Amino acid sequence: MSQVYLEYSFLVKPLSLGNEILIAELGYVGFESFVEDYQGLKAYIQKKEWNENILEEIQILNSNEFKITYSFKEIEQVNWNEAWEKNFHPIEVDKKCVVRAPFHPQANVDYEIVIEPKMSFGTGHHETTYMMLQHILETDFSKKTVLDMGCGTAVLAILAEFRGASKIDAIDIDSWCYKNSLENIERNNCKNIKMFLGDVSLLENKKYQIIIANINRNILLKDMESYCSSLENGGRLFLSGFYNEDLNLIKATCTKLNLTFVDKKERNNWVAAIFKK
Questions:
Q1: 16-27 burial string, b = 16+ CB within 10 Å, else e?
Q2: Helices (H), 188-235
Q3: 97-100 vs 91-93, strand pairing mode
Q4: 146 exposed, middle or buried (CB, 10 Å; 0-12, 13-18, 19+)?
Q5: 19-49: per-residue pLDDT in tens?
Q6: How does pLDDT run across 102-139, given as a tens digit for each residue?
Q7: In whole angstroms, what is the distance from residue 1 CA to residue 21 CA?
Q8: In order of start, what are the domains of the chain with their CATH numbers?
Q9: What's the CA gap between 257 and 251, in Å, rounded?
Q10: Could you tell me if residue 130 is left (phi over 0), alpha (psi between -120 and 50 degrees) or otherwise beta?
């Protein structure tokens, strides 16, 4: 039996940066696939995953920097594999790491991550994932215990293992991401990653030396206390999924929890920050 999808058609101005931000935010609330065009993009979500308030968390729709209008309709399920294969290109990070699909040729770099290009968010194409990969490349993960919260495709957890982490928990609330992450963990021959389907409640009584959370501002703020409780003294918290103008709010929340700001990266107004406990 075919699944019923909703197709949202967005008209976006300015187009390039607007499309990138919109895709990232829609991915976080459950949209599974995107097709860009010269006016904006089309975004798809299963009807059973949809609710009438689905766009309330999409911050860019309330931004004065962009003009975005949209409409939506029901459609029958379509197979996106061919479209993904045409549009998914390898990503190279600092000449050290490449994220590619199985149908791309092998790369001559220190770390090569093979990700099946399905609907899960976190292929390395978006600024937040790219910067988090950079942070991981620059950090000593040797024998560290790690949490990848909201793992998407598990690309960050996979690089953490490649960088020497001894134990990694990867968590995502989305069942599609959970299944896709399991596939990618196996595909990259990872042995130290355990995958869990669920939310922040799974962190009770768990401790980590490094916590990675690439989600969005509202969820980060809501769950920050849980992250802090699960972070060992001296541990590091990697945060991304928010804009530069949100950094002060993130910093203030972390400061209240006795976390110290260490460093940040910025890329097209997105930020990836590190805090220490």
A1: ebbbbbbbbbbb
A2: 217-230
A3: antiparallel
A4: buried
A5: 888 988 898 888 877 877 778 888 888 888 8
A6: 888 999 999 999 987 665 455 656 788 999 999 999 99
A7: 33
A8: 4-78 (3.30.70), 139-276 (3.40.50.150)
A9: 10
A10: alpha
- Average pLDDT, integer, range 73-91: 68
In Å, what is the CA distance from 122 to each residue of 7, 9, 53, 207? 21, 22, 24, 24
Phi then psi for 64, rounded to 5 degrees?
A: -75, -10
Q: Is the pTM of this model over 0.90?
A: no
Cα gap 38→41, rounded to integer Å: 8
Q: Which amino acid is at 223?
A: D
Question: How far apart are alpha carbons 272 and 274 in whole angstroms?
Answer: 7
64 Cβ neighbours under 8 A, 6+ residues apart = none
Whole-number pLDDT of residue 81:
57
- Report the candidate in 212, 214, 215 with the shortest Cα–Cα distance to residue 136: 212
The helix/strand/coil state of 204 is coil
Backbone angles phi, psi at 172, to 5 degrees: -145, 145
Tokens for 237, please give them: 């918290």
Amino acid at 261: F
Nearest to 159 by CA among 186, 180, 182, 132: 132
CA distance 111 to 137: 9
